[in-house]
Every structure is written in structure tokens, then in C-alpha cells.
Design brief:
373 residues, alpha+beta, Aminopeptidase, Cathepsin B, Chain A, 2 domains, seven-stranded mixed beta sheet, 11 helices, 15 strands, 32% helix, elongated
Length: 373
């Protein structure tokens, strides 16, 4: 077979596209009218694979407004081109193009009994995350699959800032996201740093706020900065308010008084131990600056956009580029995730700005650390 060329679908391809569709599918076909629509639409990515003589296949991705998702709507390969890697080439090109226009994930549906297609998608890194019953015209079920298509440096490597060799560490309790994130930050600056459950709990005991709205207390940014400083790092805590943190959702006055006292203690200890506390409005430019200067950074976000719970949650920043900020999330949900799903997670800049604001008081806080020389 001659060299395969991938290019954007054109009106001249219409007749061959219709013919290919008829040959590949017995149901759920795209009509000539729909092909015409997608050849002209601006909310899709439509490419074809050709050699010198014939149309070998096509791929169509839909770009829904208001989301960071791309959806693989249809892919078809001529029988004469099967086994030549055409489908894999088309899929890879669609992923690159979707990532270039700001999409972070690709989703698709595939017939549950289509073993060949499922194997192709799995080999390309797609994972099953759900299914639709009675999805196709023949009443067969469909599997839902997804892949992260935007990764650090995959689109604009020259624009990436950061991307230290950041180890991933899973938090062992529901309340130790702060210590787990700090351990990852310390680990990227010092390969000898021990990332352990014992260290995680030690840091939590040093940095805890004692109480939260429910359950055990989370970690205070100044407390985390103190813990890092005591372990040989230069630490700075950035907070946009001097008021006591995290008490707005606490109902009892006793808990509030305890948390206020802890807040005051952390501030006094920071002054005594040389930990810098900067009171300023935190922005992505701050994070970019720290990464450029070889700091490791952990940031507090609200989980509302992740799970609807509006809980404060610490994550470790690994890189930033022109479109996304990337984080290691220490919270692994084994029911739906593997550890890879929690590493270098791409979050669009605008989305991260919203996630980074916690509570009615719009708290923004982060801790930046650097190895002492």
C-alpha cells in the first residue's frame, strides 16, 4: 500500500465517504445529508485517510461547547485497508487536533460485542467507565470509554513551565490530602525524601486545624509550611486573608474558638521559625513564577467541581502551560480510578481559577517550597 495521507475532509470526498459508510455499517449510518453538514460545521474535527488511489478511512470528532471533552462520533476503515494501522493513525491524529483546540479528554461509545474496536481503543489508552443499554438501532449495548488526550508538553512543549520529576503519593486517610501533597512536593525536590504513611501522619499532626465542618481537621497552609521548613526546605505560605481559616462552615462556638487559637499559634510559630507568610491575592502568574524558579507548589482547591462536596482539598502542581495547569491529586477512588488517573491531571486555566477559590470568603492559598542550599 502506498503512503497514507491524513488531511481534513473536503467536499470532494463526499461520494467516497457515503460509499464507505454503506460498506462498513449495516445500521446507525451517517447519511449523505449529515456528511454534508459535518464537512461544513465548525464544531467538529473531520479527517480522512487516503493513499494515491482511494479513500482508506475517516474519523469524525464532535466538539461540544462549554465542555473540555471531545467525542469520537464515528470512525470507519475500508476493508481493503484493514490491518495496515489506518484506524490507529486516524485516532492519534484526531486526539492531537482535539488537544490543540483545548480539549482535555476524548470520549467514545463502542458496541459491547465489537471486540476488535474495543481492543484498538484499549491499546491506545482508552478505559471503560460506563455503558449505555439499548444504545444502537439493533438494541445492542454500548461501552463508554475515555482517554486523557492533553498531557504535559503534548501540544506546546516549549511553553511548559515546571514538570519536575514529581512522585505520586496516595493519601491514606480522607483528611491527609495536605500532608500527601506536601510529601509529593518535597519528593520532587529531593529524591531521598521518604514518602511514607508515617511521614504523612506526622505532618498531619503538625499541621492540622483540629476541627473542620465534619470529621477530622484538615491542614492549615502555615502549618504545612512549618512542617516543610522543619524538614529542610525553604517554605512560604501564601494566603489572601489574615482572618482565621476554615471556620465559616463550623457551627459550634467552641470549635471556632479552638480553630482560631490554632490559627494564631501557627502564625506565631511561623514568625519564630522563619517561615514566610505572604498575604496577597493568589494568581496563576504566581504559580508560574514559582515553577520557573524551581519551587514545588501545593495549592488548596474546592472539590465542588470534582465531586459536588465543596470540601477543601490540597493538590500538588506539576506544570503549567498556555492552556492548562497540571496537578497530582493524592485522592484515589479505587472504584473508578487507577493511579495514572490522578497524575498530571490537566485543568484548564479558567477552570482552575474557579476551583482555587474555597468557601463564601473566597479563600485562596498555596505553599511554595524550595530545597535549602
Amino acid at each position: 500500500m502506498s503512503d497514507i495521507t491524513l488531511r481534513t475532509a473536503q467536499k470532494d470526498d463526499l461520494a467516497a465517504l457515503v460509499q464507505l459508510e454503506q460498506a462498513c455499517f449495516s445500521g446507525d449510518r451517517l447519511s449523505k445529508r449529515r456528511f454534508k453538514h459535518w464537512l461544513e460545521a465548525d464544531n467538529g474535527i473531520f479527517i480522512v485517510a487516503r493513499d494515491n488511489h482511494m479513500l482508506l478511512g475517516y474519523g469524525l470528532v464532535l466538539l461540544h461547547q462549554g465542555t473540555r471533552l471531545a467525542r469520537l462520533y464515528s470512525i470507519a476503515i475500508d476493508d481493503r485497508a484493514r490491518g495496515q494501522g489506518v484506524a490507529k493513525k486516524i485516532l492519534a491524529e484526531l486526539e492531537v487536533r482535539a488537544a490543540q483546540v483545548g480539549r482535555l479528554f476524548m470520549r467514545l461509545e463502542v458496541a459491547e460485542n465489537n471486540a476488535g474496536a474495543i481492543a484498538l481503543y484499549q491499546s491506545a489508552g482508552y478505559r471503560i467507565f460506563g455503558e449505555y443499554s439499548d444504545y444502537y438501532e439493533d438494541h445492542s449495548d454500548a461501552l463508554r470509554m475515555q482517554k486523557r488526550i492533553r498531557t504535559v508538553g503534548s501540544v506546546s512543549p516549549e511553553l511548559v513551565v515546571g514538570y519536575h520529576d514529581v512522585p505520586w503519593f496516595r493519601q491514606n486517610t480522607e483528611f491527609t490530602c495536605g500532608p500527601a501533597s506536601l510529601l509529593m512536593a518535597m519528593g520532587c525536590l529531593d529524591a531521598q525524601c521518604e514518602l511514607s504513611h508515617e511521614q504523612e501522619l506526622d505532618i498531619w499532626r503538625e499541621a492540622t486545624t483540629i476541627f473542620m465542618t465534619s470529621g477530622h481537621g484538615g491542614c492549615h497552609p502555615i502549618g504545612l509550611a512549618l512542617a516543610a521548613q522543619r524538614r529542610g526546605y525553604q517554605a512560604t505560605a501564601f494566603v489572601n486573608t489574615q482572618a482565621p481559616l476554615f471556620i465559616e462552615g463550623v457551627r459550634t462556638e467552641h470549635k471556632k474558638s479552638v480553630m482560631t487559637l490554632v490559627d494564631e499559634q501557627f502564625k506565631n510559630k511561623a514568625q519564630a521559625e522563619g517561615v514566610i507568610v505572604e498575604y496577597c491575592e493568589l494568581s496563576l502568574s504566581h504559580i508560574e513564577h514559582w515553577l520557573q524558579n524551581n519551587y514545588a507548589v501545593i495549592v488548596l482547591i474546592s472539590t465542588y467541581r470534582l465531586d459536588g462536596r465543596k470540601a477543601p482539598h490540597w493538590v500538588t502542581v506539576t506544570a503549567i502551560d498556555d492552556m492548562c495547569l497540571y496537578v497530582h491529586d493524592p485522592d484515589l477512588d479505587e472504584k473508578i480510578q487507577v493511579s495514572f488517573d490522578c497524575q498530571h491531571i490537566p485543568i484548564a486555566r479558567d477552570d482552575f481559577i474557579k476551583m482555587q477559590t474555597f468557601g463564601r470568603d473566597k479563600l485562596r492559598t498555596a505553599v511554595a517550597i524550595k530545597r535549602l542550599v
